[in-house]
Every structure is written in C-alpha cells, then in structure tokens.
Amino acid sequence: MEKDPNNILEEVTQSEYKYGFYTDIEMETAPKGLSEDTIRFISAKKNEPEWLLQFRLEAYRKWLGMTEPTWAHLHHPPINYQDIIYYAAPKKKKELASLDEVDPELIETFNKLGISLEEQKRLSGVAVDAVIDSVSVKTTFSETLEKQGIIFCSFSEAVQKVPELVKQYLGTVVPADDNYFAALNSAVFSDGSFCYIPKGVRCPIELSTYFRINAANTGQFERTLIIGDENSYVSYMEGCTAPMRDENQLHAAIVEIIALKDAEVKYSTVQNWYPGNKKGEGGIYNFVTKRGICKGNNSKISWTQVETGSAITWKYPSVVLMGDHSVGEFYSVAVTNNYQQADTGSKMIHLGKNTKSTIISKGISAGHSSNSYRGLVKMTKRAENSRNFSQCDSLLLGDKCGAHTFPYIKTENKTSIVEHEATTSKISDDQLFYCNQRGIGTESAIGLIVNGYAREVLKQLPMEFAVEAQKLLSISLEGSVG
Amino acid sequence: MLSIKNLRVSINGKEILKGINLEVKPGEVHAIMGPNGTGKSTLASVIAGRDIFDVEEGEIQFRGKDLLDMSVEDRASEGIFLGFQYPVEIPGVSITNFMRTAVNEQRKYRGLDPMPANEFLAKMEEKKQMLEIHAKLANRSVNEGFSGGEKKKNEIFQMAMLDPSLAILDETDSGLDIDALKIVANGVNKLRRPDNAFVVITHYQRLLEYIVPDIVHVLFDGRIVRSGGKELAIELEEKGYEWIRA
Ligand SMILES: Nc1ncnc2c1ncn2[C@@H]1O[C@H](COP(=O)(O)OP(=O)(O)OP(=O)(O)O)[C@@H](O)[C@H]1O
Ligand SMILES: [Mg+2]
After folding, report:
1. A177: in domain
2. Residue B109's closest CA among B73, B65, B151, B161?
3. Buried-most residue among A47, A366, A418, B155 (CB within 10 A)?
4. Do A444 and B82 touch (CB under 8 A)?
5. pLDDT confidence bin for B239, thresholds 50/70/90
6. By CA distance, what is B71's nearest residue in A?
7. Nearest CA to ligand 1 atom 2
8. Residue ranges per structural domain of chain B
C-alpha cells in the first residue's frame, strides 16, 4: 500500500516536545562509537531543544533495527560504525602561512580550474588578509536577503533562530526511517544549511553555500533543509569544484526540499569529493539522500548535479509530485574514473494529476570504474494525465569500465505516459583523429567531446558554476585514454 | 614544402601504398586522381599521421622536418590540414567552441597566447561570409545532422580559420551542388598564396576548372603512374582509367 505523504508529515510532528534542554559540557569530542549517550552529547553540545533530541533518538532506535542496503551495484569493505567519531567541536583548521605550504598537486589542480589566488588560500586554509573582497560581499549579500525576509543560515543557527520552521518541516520529506543512511544521518547529523524563501519572494541572487557565513566544518553528516513558500523562487547551489579532501571516509548527507503552491526551487550541485588514488585506495564513500516534495499545485523542483568525486557514490535525488500540475526535473552528469563506483539516478513519484517529470542522466565511465543509473518512475492511481520522459546515456572510455542502467517503471493508471530512452556510446578513434588533425591533443579532445556529450545537463547550471564544471569534467578524465 | 620518398604503407598486412614519390612546392596546387580504392585517402591520412596504417618504408619531410616521428596534433600545428572525405560528427560541441580550441591549441604550439575573443569572433564572421555559411550553422554541433554538402563546406571553413601551409582536400567537391562548388573553389583561390600549397583529391575534372592545378597525378594501385599538367585531367575524363592501365 502506498503511504500517504500527509501521514508522513504527521508521524514526525505529532508529539510535542519540551524546549530548553541545556547542558554545559566541557568535552570537545565525543568518544568513538554510536550510542544514545553519543546522541545526547551531540544534542547537548548544540544546545538543541528537547524535540530535536527526541527526533534523533527515535531515528537511532530505528537505525538499530535496520540493515545496510546491498542492492546497489557497489562493492566496499564493511563499515565499522563504532569506529567513527560522531562529534568533534568545529575546530579551526590549522592556518598555513602561505600557499608554499600547500600540497603542490592541489595547487596545480586549482590553477587548472582557474581559481583565483585569494580563493585558493581560502580553500586550502591559508590565512587571508582581514580586508578581502569576499567579506564585504558577504555582508551586502546577507543584508539584501534579510530585507526580503529570506532566511539563509547554517542548520544549527536555524534551530536556534526559527525552531518552529525547522520543526514543522524536518523529516517530512525524508522520514528518519527512510533508509539506513537517512536514519543514521537523522540520529547524528552535524550541521548543514537552512533556507526559507517567504511567500511571493523571488530570491534575487543564486544562493550558494560558499557565501554562507559559518559554512566551515559541516562535517560528514550534513543536513540541509530548503523551503520555498507559496509563489516563491530560489536557485540554490551547493558544493565546490575544488577537490575536497576529508579524513572522514563515510559521508551520509540528507537534503530535503519543500515547494509549496506555485513555488520553484532549483538545486544545483557540483560534487568533487576525493575519489581515492589511481589504485582505488582511500577516497570518500558518499551515501546521500536527496528528496524534494512538490507539495502545492503548480510547484516545481529541479535537481542538477555534476558528480566527479568520491570513491563510492550512492545518490538518487528524487521528487514527490504531490500537487496537481507540479513539475520535477533531474539533470545529472556522473563521471567515474580509475576504480570509482557510482550508483546514482533519480526517483519521480507522481501523486498529483497532470504532473510532469524529466530525467536526463549522462554517465561517463573511464578506467576500471563502474557507473550505474538506477531510476524509478511511479505513476500512482490518482496521477492521471501525467508524463515522464527519461533519457539515460552512457559514454564509455576504454574497455575496462562498466555502465549499467536499471530503470524501474510502475504505472497504476491508464492516462499517464512514461517514455524511457537509453544509449551507450564510445568516443571513437575517428572522433579523436578528427580533433587531433585540427591541432587538438587527445586530452583536450576528450575534454571537448565529454563536455559536448554532457551539454544538455551543463546548460542547466548557473553560469559561474557551468564554466568551472566544464573544466572539472576535463580534469577528472585526464590520463584516462592513451 | 612536402617531400615524400618511396612511401610504402600497409594495413593489416595488406600493402596499399607501394612506393609513392611526391614533391609539393610552396605556391603549388596538386591534384590527385585515380579509381576508387587505389589509396588516395590512405595517402592523405598517412601524411596527417593516422596510426592505423603501418609505414613500412620511405620518408615524409615537411618544411625540412621529419613528419613520421610527429604526433597528429603536432603535424596539424606545423601547418598540415586535412579536409576529410567523411567529416566526423562531434555531438554537443559547437563549431565555435571547436574552432576556438583548435586555433588556440595551435597557437600554444607556436608559443603564442590564446587569440583574444573579439579577434576570434571577427575572424569567424569574416570566414563565414567568405564561404556564405549561415550564422546559425556555426552554433550547431560539429557536423551533427549536417547535410553532405554542409559538412564539406564546414571543412573548408575550418581550413580558412586555421590558415594551414599545406591543405589536403579529400574529395571536398563530392556532395556539393554547383553553387556550393563555386563558393568552395572561390574560397580556396582566395586563400592561395606564394607560401602555401594545396593537394586536391578528386574524381571530377569539373573542380579543376575552378581550382586550376599546376600538376595532376594519377594514383593507380598504390603508385603514382602518371603526372602532368591540367590537360591530363581532361584527357582522363574523356578516356577513363582504362587508358592509363593500357
Ligand atoms: N581502415 C582500413 N582497414 C582496412 N582496409 C582499409 C582501411 N582503410 C583503407 N583500406 C583499404 O585500402 C585501400 C585504399 O583505400 P582508400 O580509402 O585509400 O582509397 P581511395 O583511393 O581514397 O578510394 P575512394 O576514391 O573510393 O575514396 C582500399 O582497398 C581500402 O579498402
Ligand atoms: Mg578516398
């Protein structure tokens, strides 16, 4: 039986919790391992209200009864959840005196990406001058937003500033027991972003986590909540094209998006976590749950992602199309090289009438990597006259990589139309020779061809992001042919 | 400029070029004619550096440099251009982007900075007008969905953009209607200079009425069996290849 989304909402919000739980604890880091005590510790550290602690504890109890999913086309050694430190006070990164102290390989990548010197320093933790441009930019930025009633801050800040809003929406799109990693995140999430666009407001700028003050150290269990109130619009960008290194191997984030009547939320991300070395050692495991709900009529949610990093990616940004005439979109480019593994795709759950969804997925595999598309399109009985179009393309570089497509389609009414197209192609020697003959070396030629292949998705990205993403695609495939 | 000596080439053990000798001097236009499958495109590809062919013997010198040791892209940057008999499609890559990349990679090879954007766009505009190419075509992906004639015109357009010292045009005339043929020939003629050269591969003497060759070669079964002035092309058209064979 199908779960009524309204029930999901109730399940999470029915019980009233008391506010004001506060303890002062001197310790800065929780002991290794996961227990109710760890969770109480995290919650106390963050000065959270009682209801949020209960939310976490409930999630933890559910997680205890769940098992790690094995259906994905991924292989990794078992994760020891008791060997992880779930809370460490946001430490200031060790500041370096100059860029000379930074790993030269990292600098080289920065240069290839065309990242400015100031930005390079910021990203690699070099102390920057007190009066740099971005500080003043940030201030003007926040003022503009506040005037319009837009709330854009860290998740922890939101819990203190607008607890009612957080409480109303947290866990309503991704219930705590949605899946194993979602339950884990709900129990121990560290921090993340919160964004609320009031009724009728069109956010005048692209909201980027880069501009958010307090963005540092959101940690391995990130939590993001975006709410577009009626008739609002926001374009939200997350991530960074610069390579992100992290000592934590396991990352399990949750992003929830709520679009009310006539609202539109556009979410773009470029993800470039450390993928491990050429032999496949190290690298981040990225198990993310991203879901949006088009709650009101005529609402729209659009996901655009460019994935080049992580050793393992497990990620299916989805849209629940609840309102009539609502629209869900998913545009994705996923690159895997060396020994990377990606199992990614989208779910479009059509509940409302005349709803429309589009899935465009471009997988690019090189080296010994494995790249799977997994998608679900569901037309429920009520979702009359709804449509989905899915296009899943795979591009293979070399013959040691693999691409797989797992589309699932469930249609419970007769008036809806679901279309699925899939192609697999290779970069041909003729194409490379043609480019070479024009003076374009093989490495640049591959970059050019791959970017051409992904163009449909890249053009969905905000301008500034798109340019960086293009360079990133070329760089991630360097050395993959020849 | 181009000097080929006793070139023997095979593919999968099958010998295709059986001792080619060819001298092309600056300012010259050479035409190569010959029946299907005799090795005209193979010769063009080997000069450009396609590695599926095995060079068994011989040498190719280009402006005093040994070509056989050079990569395909370096040969291109040295000034060799190949107009393909079958141009390749590159989905999603606009002609503008493709050309900007090519122009700048070649400039990099020559130690020059990338061409400033406005200069590049002005050059695109000029060459498009010269070849009567629709503005829209340049925004489309390289050769994707182009008609046969559009593809050939696009090859000449790229040649004009890259301004090579030696252009080898492999059956650029086939697939062109009579107006397009004139435009293309006109474009080539405008690009002719005392310091560059053209090798035109064709089956039809009609093209040679517009692009007048200095020397015509007949390639037959992997060998150049006859060379002569432009009259040779007319004679060939009248008498057919049987006449050569005899
Ligand atoms: N990649 C290849 N693999 C196998 N044989 C090849 C290959 N390329 C060319 N050949 C063979 O080499 C011979 C010469 O081919 P080539 O394309 O050079 O002929 P051509 O003179 O250009 O002919 P046309 O006038 O039809 O264009 C032919 O027998 C052809 O089948
Ligand atoms: Mg040929």
Report:
1. yes
2. B73
3. A366
4. no
5. confident
6. A436
7. B11
8. 2-245
**A440/chain B closest Cα distance in angstroms:** 5
The tokens for A429 are: 């020697």
* Mean pLDDT within A280-301: 90
Q: What are the percentages of helix, strand and coil residues in chain A, rounded to 5?
A: 30, 30, 40
Q: What is the ipTM of this complex?
A: 0.97
Q: Which of A430, A452, A456 sits opposite B93 (nearest CB)?
A: A452
- Residue A410's pLDDT is 94
Find the helix or strand (DSSP H, E) in which A51 lies: helix A50-64
Cα of B42 vs centre of ligand 1, distance in Å, is 6
**Any B CB within 8 A of A443 CB:** no
Question: Residue A13 belongs to what H/E stretch?
Answer: helix A5-13
A396 forms beta bridges with: A365, A426
Considering CB atoms only, which of A428, A448, A455 is closest to B101?
A448
Cα distance between residue A40 and residue A157, in whole Å: 19
The tokens for A98 are 């100059």
Q: Which structural domain range is residue A382 located in?
A: 134-476
Average pLDDT, chain A: 81
Per cent of chain A over pLDDT 70 is 78
SS3 A330: strand
Residue at A81 is within a domain: no
Q: Is residue B225 scored above 80 in pLDDT?
A: yes
Q: Are B115 and B104 in contact (CB under 8 A)?
A: yes
Q: Are B13 and B199 in contact (CB under 8 A)?
A: no
Report the amino acid identity of residue A62: K
Contacts of B71 in chain A (CB under 8 A): 436, 441
Q: Which residues of chain B does A439 touch, with a Cβ-Cβ cutoff of 8 Å?
A: 73, 76-77, 102, 105-106, 109, 162
Cβ-based contacts of A427 with chain B (< 8 Å): none
CATH of domain B2-245: 3.40.50.300
Rounded to whole angstroms, how far apart are CA atoms A249 and B192? 62
Q: Which of A431, A437, A442 sits opposite B76 (nearest CB)?
A: A437
Nearest-CA residue of chain B relative to A430? B88
Dihedral sign (CA B189, B194, B199, B205): positive
Cβ–Cβ contact A449 with B under 8 A? yes
Q: What is the reported pTM?
A: 0.81
Distance (angstroms) between ligand 1 centre and the Cα of B37 equals 5
A98 has a pLDDT exceeding 80: no
State if residue B45 touches ligand 1 by the CB under 6 angstroms criterion.
Answer: no
CA distances A4 to A54, A380, B177, Å, are: 23, 11, 65
Q: Which is nearest to B169 in space by CA: B99, B94, B80, B82?
A: B82
Confidence of residue A110 (pLDDT cuts 50, 70, 90): low
Structural domains in chain A (count)? 1
B32-45 tens-digit pLDDT: 999 999 999 999 99
Mean pLDDT, rounded, for B177-187 = 90
Whether B222 lines ligand 1, by a CB cut-off of 6 Å, is no
Contact A245, A272 (CB under 8 A): no
Domain annotation covers residue A160: yes
Q: Which of A430, A437, A444 sits opposite B101 (nearest CB)?
A: A444
- A333 CA: distance to closest CA in chain B (Å): 14
DSSP A440: -
Q: Is A420 exposed, middle or buried (0-12, 13-18, 19+ CB in 10 A)?
A: middle
Question: Is the CB of B202 within 6 Å of ligand 1?
Answer: no
Which B residues, 133 through 162, put their C-beta within 8 Å of a C-beta on chain A?
A: 141, 158, 162
Tokens, residue A142: 């926040």
